[in-house]
Write a structure and sequence with these properties.
The structure holds 2 protein chains of 2 kinds. Chain A has 3 helices and 4 strands. By secondary structure, chain A is α+β, with helices and mostly antiparallel strands. Chain A folds into 2 domains: 53 residues, 2-Layer Sandwich (Alpha-Beta Plaits), CATH 3.30.70; 28 residues, no CATH class. In chain A, the strands form 2 sheets. Chain A has a two-stranded antiparallel sheet. A two-stranded antiparallel sheet of chain A has the order 2-3. Chain B has 2 domains: 171 residues, Rossmann fold; 159 residues, no CATH class. Chain B is built from 14 helices and 9 strands. In chain B, β2, α1 and β3 form a beta-alpha-beta unit. The longest helix of chain B has 29 residues. Chain B is elongated. The model of chain B has no long low-confidence stretch (mean pLDDT 95). The chains are: A alpha+beta, B alpha/beta.
Chain lengths: 97, 345
């Protein structure tokens, strides 16, 4: 559904084309088709669709991707504020989402 | 007691492995409905470890999943007619995507379960199929380094597993994309509604109690008549934020969830005013616009955590302005509402 897109120009996703070897792992794990690989190099094509889940960074064997990953969740951010921690959806010992 | 989904055992070089059914029983359906309403959701788990599906051999594929029973049920149902192994990670009863975000569906937990199951004795190949959304917590190249098993990322949805197998263990572009259609959004609404727990009783009770206040003291009649009106208004605003906004999400203008919720909350308030439910006192009517707008906006904003496309940076940016406004609206609204009981305009 194309109507589901969040705020523009906020995400922290970054790609270093120098380090990229074109393995395509980022295109496989990204749930929102943020990357394409052309001529053995990945490129960010839909940055505003990135939800900062961090799957690409974690699965990039060349460490070419960086993103401040975390939960895009208002309750999680409030939890973090109240407890003075990073945003977390852990609302107790067992978590909630 | 043996869970109902285990139908027997299969002898393997690493011991007897429980065999699971690929069909749901009535209890599975009832439990699914309960969990969708948040009843027992935090403790709906299966035992982590290796399971067998169908009549798997040492060449059969290994599917990795989480130990949230709702997730487990969808995976085993999708594996109907397929011979394979199911490796369940200990995610403390949380689904794959959230557990991966929390770090329980992780490289180390996958490596640990591969080791605990002695998977290298059970299968002759060195591949595990991990749901794509698990990639948030699992690093394919690190799993390979630590265990010798290569990670193949499967489809986002368990239901696509048969098509994934037919395509030669390749997830098509469509299988890799996270969509968030109306049907999925509506499945999540009950949990949204039930989430605040006892506040759902406490806040309306306070309004009911305070509704009886007036210039002459306290009136039980007023508490009942005015209180009922208050309860309707609160409930409508709550449903506007928790259910109507998620349902209409792509069609409501604005990208910020707080604005979407505010718009829906105010539309609902306008509707209620047509039925004279906001009271005859203009001050009270204004107070309801503030309370209903704030409540609907806030509850809609919490749907960011349920949605599948909001980023941490985006939600932080949105909240920086939205949260103070929502609190201000609710606080001013409650004050106006109280004043309206004593002042006649």
């Amino acid at each position: 559904m194309n109507g589901l897109i969040y705020l523009s120009n906020v995400v922290t996703l970054d790609l270093d084309p120098e380090k990229c070897t074109g393995c395509r792992m980022c295109t496989i794990v990204c749930p929102h088709e943020v990357f394409v690989v052309e001529n053995r190099k990945a490129r960010i094509v839909q940055k505003d669709r990135c939800m900062e889940c961090g799957a690409c960074e974690k699965n990039c064997p060349d460490q070419a991707i960086s993103v401040r990953s975390g939960v895009g969740c208002a309750s999680g951010i409030i939890n973090g504020l109240l407890r003075g921690t990073e945003p977390t959806c852990d609302c107790g010992s067992s978590g909630c989402c | 007691m043996k869970p109902g989904y285990i139908t027997g055992h299969l002898d393997t070089p690493s011991g007897a492995i429980p065999l699971v059914s690929t069909t749901w029983r009535v209890k599975d359906i009832i439990d699914t409905i309960k969990v969708r309403w948040s009843v027992g959701r935090m403790n709906y788990r299966v035992q982590p470890g290796l399971y067998a599906v169908g009549s798997p051999r040492d060449s059969s594929p290994v599917f990795v999943t989480a130990n949230f029973k709702l997730t487990f049920d969808h995976v085993r149902r999708a594996l109907g007619g397929i011979d394979g192994w199911l490796l369940v990670l200990d995610t403390r009863g949380i689904n794959v995507w959230c557990a991966a975000g929390k770090g329980t569906f992780s490289t180390s937990e996958l490596a640990r379960q591969i080791g605990l199951a002695s998977l290298e004795k059970v299968v002759s190949h060195r591949k595990v199929i991990v749901p794509q959304l698990g990639a948030v917590g699992v690093s394919a190249h690190e799993v390979k380094q630590q265990t010798g098993f290569a990670v193949i990322y499967g489809p986002v949805l368990a239901a696509d597993i048969p098509a994934f197998i037919d395509a030669g263990y390749k997830a098509t572009r469509d299988m890799r994309k996270v969509k968030f259609p109306f049907s999925e959004r509506m499945k999540l609404v009950p949990v949204e509604l039930a989430n605040p727990g006892y506040y759902l009783l406490l806040v309306p009770a306070l309004f009911l109690l305070l509704s009886g206040l007036n210039r002459h003291g306290y009136s039980i009649d007023l508490a009942l008549s005015g209180g009922l009106r208050s309860l309707i208004n609160l409930l409508v605003a709550y449903v506007a934020g928790c259910a109507v906004t998620p349902a209409l999400l792509p069609w409501i203008p604005f990208r910020r969830f707080a604005l979407k919720g505010l718009a829906v909350g105010w539309c609902a308030a306008v509707l209620l005013s047509l039925f004279h439910l906001l009271g005859s006192n203009p001050l009270e009517a204004v107070s309801w616009f503030l309370i209903m707008g704030g409540l609907s906006s806030f509850t809609a904003m919490t749907f960011t955590g349920t949605s599948t496309f909001t980023s941490l940076s985006g939600v932080q940016k949105e909240m920086k302005t939205a949260l103070p406004v929502q609190i201000g609206m609710a606080a001013a609204g409650i004050l106006f509402w109280l004043f309206s009981k004593f002042i006649i305009l």
